[in-house]
UniProtKB/TrEMBL annotation:
Gene: nrdG
Record InterPro entries: Aldolase_TIM, NrdG, Organic_radical-activating, Radical_activat_CS, rSAM, rSAM_sf
CDD domains: Radical_SAM
Family in the record: Belongs to the organic radical-activating enzymes family.
Protein name in UniProt: Anaerobic ribonucleoside-triphosphate reductase-activating protein
Organism of derivation: Pseudaeromonas paramecii
Pfam families in the cross-refs: Fer4_12
EC numbers for this chain: 1.97.1.-
Length: 178
């Protein structure tokens, strides 16, 4: 996996003070994308164990308290990114208790593959869907266009983590805010 940027302190991408990783690789090609330089999988820099270690250390740094990790891009759920993103997510779960994980993807929840779903089940919040220029609204918080949804992920849902139920929840409520 490659990444474009790592911001150890970020107050824009998700609630509170966070660490944010922008990975490389996106196949959605949304018109009006503000991050086209991230589309190629091999753009940016190689994501290596040292950066993973740094992210874990930043999240656990008591001097600058972060609420959690944000994963954006590019697309963290691009099939080529899944394995390494899943490994990072698993490390945050195991080594950073109490930290939340937000993820932005161009896929809609309903179209996720089984492999993507396995990762999504480990997240706290998924912001889903392509950026649609016709539905863009700069007043929206944490999403660019009205079709995108802020979805509390199954591990936090009262539905108990069922894929079908989570899809149903997202379909019935255009935005599930947190
Ligand atoms: S999903 Fe995001 S990064 Fe990918 S093309 Fe759309 S706006 Fe750009």
């Amino acid at each position: 996996m490659h990444y474009h940027q790592y911001y150890p302190i970020d107050v824009v991408n998700g609630p509170g003070t966070r660490a944010t990783l922008f990975v490389s690789g996106c196949e959605h090609q949304c018109r009006g994308c503000y991050n086209q330089s991230t589309w190629r999988l091999d753009s940016g820099h190689p994501f290596d164990p040292a950066l993973a270690d740094r992210i874990i250390a930043d999240l656990n740094n008591p001097r600058i308290k972060r609420r959690g990790l944000s994963l954006s891009g590019g697309d963290p759920l691009h099939p080529a990114n899944l394995a390494e993103v899943a490994t990072l997510v698993a490390r945050v779960r195991a080594e950073c208790p109490g930290k939340d994980i937000w993820c932005w993807t161009g896929y809609r929840l309903e179209e996720l593959s089984d492999a993507q779903w396995q990762l999504v089940e480990q997240l706290d919040v998924l912001v889903d869907g392509r950026f649609e220029q016709a539905l863009a609204d700069p007043a929206l918080r944490w999403r660019g266009s009205h079709n995108q949804r802020i979805i509390q992920c199954p591990r936090r849902q009262a539905c108990g983590g069922s894929r079908d139920q989570a899809t149903l929840t997202a379909s019935h409520k255009e935005s599930v805010s947190c």
